[in-house]
Amino acid sequence: MIDRIEHEFGIEESLSVLNEYVRKWFTENFNELTPPQRYAFKLIAERKNVLIASPTGTGKTMSGFLSILSALFDKALEGKLEEKIYCIYVSPLRSLNNDVYKNLTRPLEGIYSLIRESKGKEIITDNIRNVTIGVRTGDTTQQERRKMLSKPPNILVTTPESLAILISSSRFVENMKSVEYIVVDEIHELANNKRGAHLSLSIERLQEISEKKFVRVGLGATLHPIEEAARYLVGMEGEKPRQCTVVDTSAVKKMDVITISPVEDMIYTKEGKIEDEIYKEIDRIVSASSTTLIFTNTRSGTERVVFNMKKRLKYKQEEIAAHHSSLSRESRLEVEGLLKQGALKCVVSSTSLELGVDIGTIDNVIQLGSPKSVSRAIQRIGRAGHTYNAIARGEVIVLNRDDMIECSVMLDAALKKHLDSFSVPRNPLDVLAQHIVGMAIDRKWEIKEAYNVVRRAYPFSTLQMEDFLSVIDYLAGNYVGLESRRVYGKIWYDKDTGIIGKRGMFIRPIYMLNVGTIPDEVSIGVFESSTKKWVGNIEEEFLSRLENGDIFALGGKLYMFEKAAGTKCYVSQAHSNTPTIPPWFSEQLPLSYELARLVGKFRGDISSALENMEEDEAKKVVSSKGKPKIPEDAQRILDGMPINDYARTAISKYITEQLLFAGIVPTDKMILVEYTYDQKSEKDILVFHSIFGRRINDTLSRLIAINLGVILGQDISIAINDNGFVVSPDEPVEINEETIETLMRKITNSDIEAVLRGNIRNSEMMRRRFRHVASRSFMILRNYKGRRMPVNRQQISARLLMKAAEEIDPDFPILKETYREIFEEVMDIGRTRELVARIADGSVSYKFVETVSPSPFSHTILTFGHADVVLMKDRNDYLRYLHGLVLDRIGIKKGRKHRVKK
């Protein structure tokens, strides 16, 4: 049963549950209890499962641990504390593990010191041991591991992968049977992915071997829906979740945030001037703060900002640093240490400092461009103000007009605590395969018994026996044809008795060396098909997004993707001037569905307030310099947003331009289908203004392209972004309202999954994702007998195995999981089905318009693929050209004409 506690306990009631020495240490070191502590101390002392949602700097770690430390010191004082593991702490980050180790060492030493002072020499005769703590991750040395085996710590700090290894270590597992508590930190970073599904099975396997039912404590910052996170934490007993009390103090930290447009006019202000103003804003904020943390959305963006702050703003080498995942671990730890000491004026990061690594006091957070999610914005800005009663100050500096609306709505939602939702992956069969092998290593299992243990993990609570048995059959080598591909059974399965067990002496090392969910990825070499000349490198995730005919920029030139083989990608010179996918697409986070819907609603509200203006009034808004005069309702909406005056002006002009030009603004309840001419590609195109986020647009655009291709009898190219997508027939063709009505009828009556399966079956994404799933399932062994298989060989094997799997059974579990991963984790087939159903019942409408040139809302969608640094000027010239056409059409002359570069 999941329940929320609404009323906090009193200070005395909270402290009364603590051991006297633990209480004394706490009151000597802290002046007060933070909000989560006023709930958690008593609940955990009562051995209740607890999920704590609270911002950074509110004492979450102490909330989750102090009652556990108290219970362990009770054992010590009673002489019952043995060299056993009583508590396991799991986090997704090794650096966070090291922080927790350091942060718990201080109270452990302090409390033991108080006991020694009180007991004097008696402490030796009474055999009162101190509570011990140890870290076990991939970085732990062999010497430390051996020591931990003979003298296990009372508190074990580890990662999901190391925990999975330890529970199948025949000697070490004896030390884990005494576990009474498990603490899962940064639960929001685990519950929504396969790594978290993997951890949930490890926890259930641990519970199976534990001597008693242990207490589960979850810690997180931004959790919605919080009950779903609680179910993930505690798992299931039968058909119902175990008991969990939710402590939600996520709203206690105040925020002071604003969206900043660096200039009044984002279209006609020169690029150099915009960049100057951005860095002036950054300098103003950084200069006024002791320490500032700047977030970009890409690693290359991080390096560019650091370079420019040194070159333009003359920041010294010792004042500023970069922090991102491409840097060495030593470099990142050095930056974190300097931050903690207050030795740096500014640190620029991509995503690597989002999570709760202790970096000391940050005065201010700057976000460059949209982080694409309300929860992520709160997480990042929440790094400022290191105490719970401090105000988290943050500025979001926007880079274009769509960014401006998106970030304004995002910060408004953040202030109102409207979080994005996460979803738990359901029944990932590759993760299941790993754990079945791990379970078989532990002992023999009856099928029903193993199935019940698996279903206690919340991500697998809906697992069907049919799917469970298909994975068993695969692992037992019961699919004919796999051994000829050197895929051998990992377990044995006696169907007569219904018993499974490990097969062979090498299965344990195979499991230990290949466990985990994070795939091997490498840099992909790009070569010209005709000359075999090396052009450059791209990331593998970027390659997986490419379809035949896609055009992308590399080194300032445009190339068309033709094919990939292993770790090589073959291209030809592109004849088009229009990229279909930007080079950083794989790094760019997708706009969340919830934020997209809020943006759509805002568009509807503000356009309703602006649309009743007379045409002359509307033209004055667009052509005005400075703050335009707009209707009171529209002004009231904009005045209520956390934005600067430049942003208010730009938003009112942007929406009014769209209304004057197209007569309609696309919203969350209306998809605008715009048939227009793109001067850059010299093609008639369809722009679908679909403000539902990139994952849904990825799914919907494929459905549109496939069905439109059938209607028109030709191939269709697509280019997607968060606000919509462009559909381009390869040959000139007339499209009208009747065409779109026919198209929508076909979509609403189609079998969405079957259509998409046919579309992605031969795609690079399918081939790459199949390799990931196959390696997680031990179909491809990344490590075997001390040798590591290179990624190019893994990919070649995957290609052959995928073909074999399709011949064996279209529902072969590894194939089935690959499709599920693509549909549910890359795309969003569930919400796309809901959207298509809403189109069918009319609750989401669509409107067809034909325009002589692209409408204002099309411009960012059309130029999305040009966002390469070398092509940026070309992109901005084209934006000005398109905007000039808009102004000509609505009867406003402004500035000089910009020619489009063909």
Write the layout of secondary structure elements.
Layout: E1 2-4, H1 11-15, H2 20-29, H3 37-45, E2 50-53, H4 60-77, E3 87-90, H5 94-119, H6 122-125, E4 133-136, H7 142-150, E5 155-158, H8 160-166, E6 181-184, H9 194-209, E7 215-220, H10 226-234, E8 236-237, E9 240-241, E10 244-248, E11 255-260, H11 271-287, E12 292-295, H12 299-311, E13 320-323, H13 329-341, E14 346-349, E15 364-368, H14 374-381, E16 392-397, H15 401-415, H16 429-442, E17 445-446, H17 447-456, H18 465-475, E18 491-494, E19 499-502, H19 507-514, E20 523-528, E21 534-539, H20 540-544, E22 551-554, E23 557-565, E24 568-573, H21 593-610, H22 615-623, H23 632-639, H24 645-662, E25 670-678, E26 683-689, H25 694-712, E27 716-721, E28 724-729, H26 737-748, H27 752-760, H28 764-776, E29 783-784, E30 787-788, H29 791-808, H30 813-826, H31 829-841, E31 845-850, H32 859-862, H33 872-890
Parallel strand pairs: 1-10, 2-7, 2-10, 3-5, 3-6, 4-5, 6-7, 11-16, 12-14, 12-15, 13-14, 15-16, 20-24, 25-31
Antiparallel strand pairs: 8-9, 17-19, 18-19, 20-21, 22-23, 23-24, 25-26, 26-28, 27-28, 29-30
What would you note in describing this structure?
The protein has 902 residues and is α/β, with parallel strands linked by helices. It folds into five domains: 2-252, P-loop containing nucleotide triphosphate hydrolases (Rossmann fold, 3-Layer(aba) Sandwich), CATH 3.40.50.300; 254-415, P-loop containing nucleotide triphosphate hydrolases (Rossmann fold, 3-Layer(aba) Sandwich), CATH 3.40.50.300; 429-514; 523-573, no CATH class; 670-871, no CATH class. The protein contains 33 helices and 31 strands. An eight-stranded parallel beta sheet has the order 1-10-2-7-6-3-5-4, sandwiched between helices. Strands 11-16-15-12-14-13 form a six-stranded parallel beta sheet, sandwiched between helices. Strands 21-20-24-23-22 form a five-stranded mixed beta sheet. Strand 6 (181-184), helix 9 and strand 7 form a beta-alpha-beta unit. Helix 2 packs across helix 5 (94-119), helix 22 crosses helix 24 and helix 28 (764-776) crosses helix 29 (791-808). It is globular and about 90 Å long.
